Amino acid sequence: MRVVLAAVGDSANVSKTLEKALRRVGVDALAVKSQDHPFNYPEQAVIYDDSVAGFVESADLYHVLNSKPPPWLPKRDVPVVVQHGGSHYRCYKDIMHDMLSEFRVVMSLIETPDLLGLSSKPEIFFSTPIDTSIYPKPERRPRGRLRVGHFPTNPASKGTAEISRVAREIDGIEYVTRGVKGWSEHIKDLLLCDVVIETLCMMFTHKGITKPLGESGLTAKEASLLGAIVVTNCVNPDPWGERPLLIANDEDALRDQIEFLVGQPGSEIDKMSDESRAWALADNDLEHTGLWLKRLYEQYA
């Protein structure tokens, strides 16, 4: 089976990770996108040009990332699986659906439970993996003041102002925050932290409807893999079962979680760090993901 993982920008580099997962289980997969991303991932999807046009034209199935089909994707009568996640789809789903109407969409992969029910196609939850092999192994940090980090890709949507206000009020921690400038720098920042605050629930209003916004994402997996204790959101029913993440859906809960950690002995922090890493290693098995996707594709192609 020949599969194209198609994206425009692919800010989280998901297409390349899924390409690796599929190739491990014998699928002839290629990740293709329209443009490079400034995060400078060590490996990225290829940029679409004439050298890959033949592969794209001959694919048995297209897997579209980030809800939006790139302009070079052929409108052929082959099955299309679309992966939905993030604010772009949440705000502009009607526009995305209109763009996808020219393709034979057979399935929607939903990354977060708040997006469930927005697609008219059959939906299934899909937890996007990370490739654990490209990350360094963390070293045990000497215990002292907890180093708490927050590294948002988008401060406005991650609740950065509120997170920083709470963190700076708490004694006994060293708080550091900065925006993500590149993948390598981001990983170095995570490695230096005992605790990473991923995001804080925000109230989101669209077309007059207000609801809480905020779910854990790939940063939670990366930080856990690198041995950090992760504080994040879960404002909807969690479809993925028990995870070693500390949940804080508002400022009071965030303060309670950080103060709880400050009160723990170093041995407990080490234990929680080990549990975070063990979960991330077990939850991000590329071969398992590849087999799951292959079986899904085989229902349609």
Task: Describe the protein in words.
It is a single chain. The protein has 10 helices and 14 strands. The chain is α/β, with parallel strands linked by helices and 301 residues long. The protein has a 7-stranded parallel sheet, sandwiched between helices. The longest helix is centred in the C-terminal third of the chain and has 18 residues, at 266-283.
Principal-axis shape: globular
- SSE pattern, N- to C-terminal: EHEEHEEHEEEHHEHEEEHEEHHH
Order the strands across the largest sheet as they lie in space.
3-2-1-4-5-6-7
What top-tier CATH class of the largest domain fits best? Alpha Beta
Classify the fold: give the CATH topology of the largest domain: Rossmann fold
Question: Uncertain segments of ≥5 residues (pLDDT<50)?
Answer: none
Structural class: alpha/beta
* Ends distance: 8 Å
Q: Could you name the CATH homologous superfamily of the largest domain?
A: Glycogen Phosphorylase B
Proper CATH architecture of the largest domain: 3-Layer(aba) Sandwich
Query: Averaging pLDDT over every residue, what do you get?
Result: 91
Short description:
By secondary structure, the protein is an alpha/beta fold. It is built from 10 helices and 14 strands. It has a 7-stranded parallel β-sheet with strand order 3-2-1-4-5-6-7, with helices on both faces. The protein has a 5-stranded parallel β-sheet with strand order 9-8-10-13-14, sandwiched between helices. A two-stranded antiparallel ribbon has the order 11-12.
